[in-house]
Amino acid sequence: MENRCRLTMEIVEGIAKEIGPERVGIRLSPFSSHLDVSDSQPEQLSVYLANALNKYNILYAHYLEPRVRRYMQHVQTSYSLQPARNAFKGAFLAAGNYNRENGNEAIASDRADLIVYGRLFLCNPDLPRRFALKAPLNDYVEATFYTQDPVVGYTDYPFLEETGYRMDS
């Protein structure tokens, strides 16, 4: 594990020395696969990385849930982020198709310090307000992800008041 994580640790160490560990965070996806390549020991890797990162006192570790494999494909799995959560001493962020309910539940059950809502924020620029009001959410349009257009799919999703949503409904 040490050799497999060496480059990551060297990069974290270098950045932390340069700008200070309180300004460093890292996103890790040890359970994911890309181009049909996945790790043979993802849970052990996630815990090893969490413990190794503690040495640098970085601000946060942002992990992708094991239930999310490739590009939001969801699978049933016995893997959990809990061992990495238990090992990491800084702020622990979790991402992976969370919604208002399961995100709140993850925080309440101490599975994470923060929940990351990447795609939901992309298509709901007023996401905290929508969560507070339990208002309907915009659906994201995957075809607009990672395009060269600086507007379509990034800045054209409507705010709640633009959708005709009535606060008294």
UniProtKB/TrEMBL annotation:
Needed co-factor(s): FMN
- Cite the GO molecular-function annotations of the record: FMN binding; oxidoreductase activity
In terms of domain of life, where is this protein from? Eukaryota
**Signal peptide (from-to):** none
Domain NADH:flavin oxidoreductase/NADH oxidase N-terminal, by residue range, is: 1-135
Report keywords, A-Z: Flavoprotein, FMN, NADP
UniProt similarity note: Belongs to the NADH:flavin oxidoreductase/NADH oxidase family.
What is the designated name of this protein? NADH:flavin oxidoreductase/NADH oxidase N-terminal domain-containing protein
- Taxonomic source organism: Ceratopteris richardii (Triangle waterfern)
